[in-house]
Structure formats: structure tokens, C-alpha cells
Amino acid sequence: MSLVEMQPGQEGIIVEIDGGRGVVDRLWVMGIFPGKKIVKLSSLPAQGPVVIKVGNQELALGRGMAQKVIVEVTP
Amino acid sequence: MGKSVIFTQLSGVYAISSNYPGTTVDYSKSTVRKNDTWFELIDAPGIYALAAEAEAEKIAERLIEEADIVVNVVDATNLERNLFLTFELLEKRKPMVLVLNMWDEAQKRGIEIDREALEEALGVPVIPVVATTGEGIKDLIRALDRAQIPKLIPQDHEKRWEEIGNLLSKVQRFSYREPQWIDFLYQATISPVGGLFIGIGVLIGSFFLVRLIGEGIINYVFDPLFSHFYLPLLERLDQLLTFSPFLQNLLIGQKIEGAINLEQSLGVLSTGVYVPIAVVLPYVLAFYLVLGLLEDIGYLPRLAVLLDGLFHRLGLHGYAIVPTLLGLGCNVPGILGTRVLESEVERFIVATLISVAVPCAAQQALIIGVLGDFGMGPVILVYSVLFVVWLVTALLLKLTVPGYRPALIVEIPPYRLPYPRAVASKLWMRTREFLKDALPIVLLGVLGINLLYTTHVFSILAEAFSPFLSRWLGLPGEAILVLLLGFLRKDLAMSLLIPLQLSVKQLIISSVMLAMFFPCVATFVVILRELGWKRLLEAIGIMVSLSLLVGGLLNIIL
User: Fold this and answer.
1) Does the beta-carbon distance from A55 to B81 stay under 8 Å?
2) Which residue of B has its CA nearest to A65?
3) Are residues B272 and B311 in the same domain?
């Protein structure tokens, strides 16, 4: 499932970035890449961004970008 | 974050800083002496990696390329993310000192970093500092000539993160810490529904706070000062100048009903001094105080996140709100602020939107001053019209200007309590900027207007434009001067509306027209410099045609 479909509060591990090189690179440098543990904090309304926590860092990703981040939810 | 604070600490030269990434969009230079060596110190915009897209990032990369020593300031509360760029720089064999800023906050948050082990592993000096208090700055100066070239082999992103992970597992440890009230506040402001209400509340609250403070300073400080001390002084001067009606007219201006009127006399020393100091300055102070607080608390990136969904429909991304808010102070820093946006198209769109529909604090002071006499209704109407113009222009540009619009990806800094001293020096810097830029232009402008009046150039112009202005906009011919002078300074131009004795409707139309019609000279120059002639002409074309359209429509509707 993508970051968008995850529920706020759920934890997960990134399995894939389903996007072009540009997107993959921009996410890489921000520390978002396969194998990384993340927590979803919230989704903003009106197709707004998804807010996640990666390590100690809180990041907001635009909806289009969040759709490309595929995660596996950890129970 | 925190580079500019460290720069200020090292050099004593003030550089504006805030609690969000992207405050610095240009560089500041200074020199620092250590023993017998002079260091040229340059404050660069922040970057995440050596892969510049935004203009501010390109500037930073160029500076790093040219530098002999890189003072790499990283956020100690966020070591992992920051080490990526550090590794990239180390791989480039740049002599470096690594500065771990916000050391105190890292400790408070239960983050323990083994400084010596990190130094050992990276092969460069590692200096913990607390930029806001100056702690550790001396150690940093001492470490400057220990800056070393480490031996790291260039590698790909994946390998780099792997090594960062390995390193961190050795040098960084987290201990548990109780959640604090500020964490709950944090959750509330980015929660879907609560965040929206808080956002609207913050914006409306800020507007009224600015008005309250601005009004307060005018009523309790500047108005009494001017009427009790300055006006009597002018009256004395007026008596002394009776020998030269020319000088009298130039310096003091026309008498209104037999007396000097600070708002309407149009003398260099009467209106020329009164408008910028007593009418505009209080609002500039109030605006920048409130903006500075919002910046240092760290609310702006949250606002960007909150608005991203809406802005996306307008073809922008949420971070566009940051330059737009800066534009409400003065369009020039607003347009410079667009350097944080990644694509040229987006920069053009946001810069155009700022110059068309975002009135600067100086102009707003006059809008409130002139229209406020008729109640809050007309003031709110002007703001609403400009907001609708902003919205419609954004949509039009989205449909007509093709180009790359990258998605939002922002770091959200934690809320921080602003340091009063930091807020105060930022306020002082921005106010000084206003006084330095505005005062000479207003004084010269008043002088020019005064001469135009006395030489009757003005009435010839007014007559020539009268048919068009009255038929299409319902304004008297004299309004042409107001529109033309908007090029000089919009606050000055607005103040010329006062002697014209216009109706509320005419005042509303001219306020809106003035805001939209043409950029002031400072904005004109900055758009030219940042985006080039072609973009400038496009922006002006949009401004002139939209303002004539909106002015005409208002004349029909109201």
C-alpha cells in the first residue's frame, strides 16, 4: 500500500519508490528509501500532503509524491 | 537550520534567521580575524544534497565549490538526515569543520551523540554549539584551522545511507523522554480538521493583532508626538519662511482651511515626513513583529503543509505561502523569497501573484488609514477583492503557463519558543531596511509632486486622462497622478488620494487599482533581476490588463 492509504499512527517499512529518477533522487536525499522505517502522522484534507516521521525528522510529502512511496505496514 | 545565527555570532554582522528552512536565499559576507589570519566568512542558503534545483540551492552549491573551508552546520537533533550532505561534501575532499547546532535541544530530547567517536570516524573537527546563545562559538573559531580533508571514497546514494546508518549506530543513542505539551500542540496543527481551524485562526488573529499594534502605536505614540511637538515646530518654521512663498510651499505645502495639515499639505517636511513615519512605520513595525514571531515559533512550514492541497489546485505548492506572506510586508523580499521554489515557472507565477494581488505593509497601512474612516466594511472589501484576484489569476496562470511543477516535500521543524533578542534584532533589521529605502523616495516624491502641482503639469495630465478615468473607472482625472506615482511608492501614491475628497466607492476602486496596476520601482527592479525582461513584461501585461478590468467591473457593480 502507499503512504496515502496508510492510517495515521501506523508504522511501516518502505518497500519501493514507484516513480521516475527525479522523484527517487529527491526522496533519497531526504532519507526516504526502501528499507526505511516510517510512521505516518497524518493526511491533510483536500488532497493535501501526508505527514510522516522518519527517524527523528518530520516531513510532509505532497499527495502525488506520497502515492509513489510503497510501504509494508508493520503490525 | 541556524547557519545565519552562527554567521551573526562569528562576524557580528546580522543575517536574518528563522525557525524554518529557506530563510536565507542569498549570501552575506563578512571577515573575521583569527590571530594573524583573515577569514572571509560567507553565509550560504541551506541545502539537503548536492543536487540543486531551486535558485537558492544553486547559490549554495556555487559557494561551496569556491570555498576553502566549509563550516558545515547541521542540526544535532536530526543528525541522520544531515549527514547525507556531510558525506557528499567529505567525498568531494573539502576541508571541513562539522558544527552540531542545537546541542542543548538534542540533549533535552534525549539524543546522545558521541562527539569524539564522530570526529574519529569522519576525520574532521566536530564542534557542538548552541547558536542562539553563542555557546561553543569560541571552540568553533579555535577549530577553524584544524579543518581537514578527510578520506572518503565517492559512492552512490544507497551505499552512503548504509554507511551513515552504520556510523550512527555507533555514535548516537536515544533515551526515552516524556512527551511535552508542545508535542500535543504540534499534533493539533497538522491534524486534518483542527489544523485548518488553527490555520484560519492564526491568519485572522495575526491580521487583527497587526492592526491593533499598528493603531496603538499611531494613537498613543506618533500622533501625540506629531501634534504636540512636530506641528508647532512646523508652524514656527512657516512663520520664518514668509519671505519666500516658494520655499514655504515646498517645505510646508498648501494650507488646508488656513492651517498646516500633515496629511494633505504635501510639503516635504509636513506630509513627506508624516506619512512614512506616523502612518506607515507603525504598521511596518507591527507586521514584522507578528511575522517574526510566527517565523521563529516555526508556524510557516505548517501553514505550507496545510495549504498544499488547496494550492495544488491552483498549480502551486504549499511552500508558495512563505514568499507570499513575506510579500505582505514588502514585495521585494517576497519575490526574492521565491528562490526557494524549484521551478522557474513556479517562481514566475508566485512573483506575478505577489505583484498583482499582494499589497505591501506600507500600502496596507494607508488602505486602513484612508478607508478605515468609513468603517471596517470597505477595508474588508478591498482585501476580499484582492484575494479573489489572486485566486483567479492563479487559476488563469495554471491554465495558460505550461511547465514543470514539482511536488511538495518539506521538513517540519519542531515548535520553538522565540528568543526575544532574536525577534527584536530581526524586527530592527527589517524596519531599518524600510526606513532606508522608503524615506528618501517619499521625500523626493513629495518634492516632485509639489513641483508638478505648482507648474500645472499635473492639471494638464489630469485633463488628458479625465474622459477615460471617469467613464471607465468613475474616478476624477487627478487619479491618474495617483496611479502613475504608484511606480515610485504605493504608500505615497495612496496618501495623495486624501486631498482628492473621493467617495468611498472611488476610494475602494483606486485602492484596488493602485495595488494591482503596476509594480513599484523596487519590485520592478527585483523582478527584472530575478526573472529577466520577458517575464517582467509578461507580469506587467497581466497587471495592467487585470487592474483595468477589475477597476471597470467594480465601477459597474458597486
Assistant:
1) yes
2) B407
3) yes
Q: For cell 543513542, name the residue.
A: B173
Angle between helices B192-217 and B281-297 (to 10 degrees): 150
CATH number at residue B71: 3.40.50.300
Q: Give per-residue pLDDT as tens, B116-129.
A: 999 988 889 999 99
Comparison of pLDDT for B344 and B194, the residue scoring more: B344
Residue B312 with chain A: CB contacts under 8 Å: 47, 62-63
ipTM of the prediction = 0.91
The answer to whether B191 contacts A42, with C-beta atoms less than 8 Å apart, is: yes
pLDDT at B182 over 70: no
Task: State the average pLDDT over residues B251-273.
Answer: 88
- Tell me: do B204 and B55 sit in the same domain: no
Sort strands B96-101 and B126-128 into parallel, antiparallel or unpaired: parallel
* Per-residue pLDDT tens digits for A2-37: 999 999 889 999 999 998 888 888 888 888 989 889
Q: Are strands B96-101 and A11-17 parallel, antiparallel or unpaired?
A: unpaired
Q: What pLDDT, on a 0 to 100 scale, did the predictor assign at position B519?
A: 92
Count of structural domains within chain B: 2
Of A25, A46, A61, the CB nearest to B310: A46
Local confidence band at B352 (pLDDT 50, 70, 90 cut-offs):
very high
Nearest CA in chain A to B414: A58
pLDDT attached to residue B185: 67
Show the domain range for B128: 3-174
Q: In B, what residues contact A, Cβ < 8 A?
A: 48-49, 51, 77-81, 84-85, 109, 111, 157-158, 161, 187, 190-193, 195-196, 301, 304-306, 308-310, 312-313, 317-318, 406-412, 414
Domain-embedded: residue B485: yes
What domains are there in chain A, each with its CATH number? 11-74 (2.30.30.90)
Percent of chain B whose pLDDT exceeds 90: 40
Nearest-Cα distance to chain A for B354, in Å, is 23
Strands B70-75 and B96-101: parallel
Task: Classify B96 as helix, strand or coil.
Answer: strand
- Alpha-carbon distance of B301 to B22, in angstroms, equals 10
Neighbouring CB atoms inside 10 A of B138's CB total 12
Q: Locate the chain A residue with the closest alpha carbon to B194.
A: A44
Q: How far is CA B546 from CA B94, B513, B533, in A?
A: 51, 9, 20
Has residue B29 been placed in a domain? yes
Question: Distance from A38 to chain B by nearest Cα, in Å?
Answer: 14
* Distance (Å) from the alpha carbon of A75 to chain B's nearest alpha carbon: 22
